[in-house]
Amino acid sequence: MTLKRFGFMVLTTVAVGMLVGVLHSLTDIFANIRLFFGFEVGGFVSATALMGFWAYLTLNFIVKGFLPQRLWHWVQAFLILVVYVDMIYLRYITAGQGTGSVWPYVGFATWPLVIALIVAYVKSKVSGKKAFIPAVFFLYVFTTIEWYVALKFGSATGETGLTIMIGTILLACNSYLILLLGRIIRE
User: What residue ranges are annotated as transmembrane (predicted)?
Assistant: First the structure.
């Protein structure tokens, strides 16, 4: 990868994050926020997405060095399941000590997974069938890791609008990055 391609990837990812943040502030779907705040949050969250992307690429490179690819795919699938259960059950237990409805936690765990599955399907159509599990793994597990602080804040304060906003910005940036990766490497 050349410095020009790297710069393109960073700048366009930040632009995607800012655009999604501005769209959130203009539409007021999940939270009533100012325009500049949406712009600012989009930029900062896109930087988090970029760091998570490089962390995933580093992890993937290291693990592929000592695990067979088939085993690494199974490990990734298992970790997707673990994160899904964690997003529902463990957050439900720790947030309300097991009282109240579990459905909000199911929603917070499922919508990112559905988006990850759709984007991974598109990625596998472009890059081949072997790209599906790694794409879902990055889009779901790493997005959840990056989203962790907002999830904790949202469940502690009941401020779900900002939590959803940050999650959608992360998913948009991570989806853009995973789909852009093949194009940048091929050029």
Answer: 35-59, 71-90, 102-122, 131-150, 162-182
In the block, tokens 């699938």 appear at 77
Half-sphere exposure of 21 (CA within 13 A, CB side): 22
63-89 exposure pattern, b = at least 16 Cβ within 10 A, e = fewer: eeeeeeeeebbeebeeebeebbeebbe
pLDDT digits 0-9 by tens, 82-126: 999 998 887 787 766 556 778 888 888 999 999 999 999 999 999
Q: Model's pTM, two decimal places?
A: 0.90
For 142, the token pair is 């790493």
- Other beta carbons within 10 Å of 156: 9
**pLDDT tens figures, 9-63:** 999 999 999 999 999 888 877 677 787 888 898 999 999 999 999 999 999 999 9
Quote the CA–CA distance of 31 and 113 in Å, as a whole number: 22
Residues 6+ positions from 162 with CB-CB distance below 8 Å: 30, 31, 33, 150, 153, 154
CA distance 120 to 126: 10
- Nearest alpha carbon to residue 54 among 16, 133, 1: 1
- Of 34, 41, 42, give the one whose Cα is nearest residue 13: 42
| Token pair in block for residue 140 | 């779901």
